Amino acid sequence: MDCKIIKTAHGSIETPALLPVSAASYGIWDMWIEKKFPAPWDLAQGTVLSLYHILQYNRKDEIREKGIHRVLKTKKPIILDSGGFQFMKKNAELEEEFVLRYQEESGCDIGITFDYPILPGLSLEEKENRMERSIHNSNLALKLKNNKKMLLYSAVHGHNPADIKKYLKSLDSGFDGYAIGSLVPKKRDYNMLINVVSAARNEKPLHVFGITGFPALFALSYMGIETFDSWTYLVAAAFKEYIDPGTLKRVKLRKVKKLPECDCFICGDYDLNDFLEGTSEAEILLALHNLNVFLKEMECVREKIKENELESYILKKAEKNSSIKRAFLIAKQYI
């Protein structure tokens, strides 16, 4: 197991890496762009954005005309997802060519094809139809791609290894990587999650959508998966939940009298009362603390990989979180 490097037009990503999701239509977005607080894309190695959220945002034309890096005021890598999952929830969709052209014109570093995620409970006919349409879009994007600087990842879906392998065989060669989705509803079913992700591993980088809990992050890092995304840091903050750096569990701040110990740059300057205020500023501060915990753990994971001590590090973390051990033992079977 080794740390790898994904090279993009705006720098490299050292793996395994957690990339924060930054929702453009979310209320605190502008405060980050205006640099009133450190932005997630400033702290992490890069960020993930959804085209769905961008198209709801008043800067969508500016992003397309000036470039997404100029709008965010960053020189770090940006992944622009097609937003297929969000569009599915709204019973809507986009044409793949529109998605691809927006990605290319925005200047993002990695574009992901427009997909039709599959959810539990779909009929076999509907499931296969959605997978076929996703595959069609991926192969179409590969043919239409003009921007040589932008890496193109194909979305991948399936709820079992057979689905995944069939899907990958149906894709044309030439993708720079793959992004596996449709796993969020089953993200705590570690047997299923690890089994499916293992089937998707190949020589190209693999991104896993929406799998953000520490048990899965440690397990998939141990398996050599390159990148993940998360906006748990932000969602937890909206519910006044603080990620405990010791146990890596969420703490409901309204039910405690003091914060767990933390040495992050936020907790050094702010306290429990600051986080509990009903303001956007309080939410940002709490989100930044939560993100710091994620990023610090992933930095430790990379260090332990280089030292060949990842297994012992994960088992040490598992002493205070039994789910971490359960997921890790399943992952170990696939190595």
Annotation field: number of helices: 16
So, the CATH homologous superfamily of the domain at 5-238? Answer: Queuine tRNA-ribosyltransferase-like
Termini separation: 10 Å
Helical percent range?
Answer: 40-55%
Q: Give the CA-based shape.
A: globular
Strand order of the largest sheet: 3-10-9-8-7-6-5-4
CATH class of the domain at 5-238, named Alpha Beta
> How are helices and strands ordered from N to C?
EEEHHEHHHEHHEHEHEHEHEHEEHHHH
Number of strands: 12
Average pLDDT works out at: 93
Share in β-strands: 5-15%
What kind of sheet is the major sheet?
8 strands, parallel
Cα-atom radius of gyration:
19 Å
List low-confidence stretches: none
**CATH-assigned fold name of the domain at 5-238:** TIM Barrel
> So, CATH architecture of the domain at 5-238?
Alpha-Beta Barrel
What is the SS-derived class?
Answer: alpha/beta
What distinguishing features does this structure have?
335 residues, alpha/beta, 8-stranded parallel β-sheet, 46% helix, globular
Tell me what the structure shows:
- By secondary structure, this protein is of the alpha/beta class.
- It has a domain at 5-238: Alpha-Beta Barrel (TIM Barrel), CATH 3.20.20.
- The protein is 46% helix and 14% strand.
- It has 16 helices and twelve strands.
- Strands 3-10-9-8-7-6-5-4 form an eight-stranded parallel sheet. It has a two-stranded antiparallel sheet with strand order 1-2.
- Helix 8 (124-144) links the parallel strand 6 (110-112) and strand 7 (151-156).
- Helix 11 packs parallel to helix 16.
- The longest helix has 27 residues, at 280-306.
- The protein is globular.
- It starts with a strand and ends with a helix.
- The model has no long low-confidence stretch (mean pLDDT 93).
